[in-house]
């Protein structure tokens, strides 16, 4: 790798490091679980199939790619704390930015995502997709 290539890589790393959420916008999984029990919204931005496989109880699922189209569903939570979670923490910061641009002022990212939630042994459930006979 040439000196110029090293400089470009180093610059890219510095730029990307400054793009994530600030420390005060990060919530660890245990704090998120406790805040959720107090009624704060936990928004899961994973794809619907991933959500159906397993998810945190009492969460709202709006896949990241549909967030702009479904922003009206979140309107009742404007001005209230909204915690965003994804699989491992890559999409949640981008979802946080979209929410902030839409006027949400109390948006937080759950650090480590649902992978960290699962590793901490916090509750998860599976969506039962079986239809009941009539």
Automatic annotation (TrEMBL):
PANTHER family on file: FAD-DEPENDENT OXIDOREDUCTASE, RHODANESE-RELATED SULFURTRANSFERASES
A UniProt-annotated Pfam family: Rhodanese
Stored Gene3D superfamilies: Rhodanese-like domain (3.40.250.10)
Every Rhodanese domain range: 36-126
Organism (species): Sideroxydans lithotrophicus (strain ES-1)
Descriptive protein name: Rhodanese domain protein
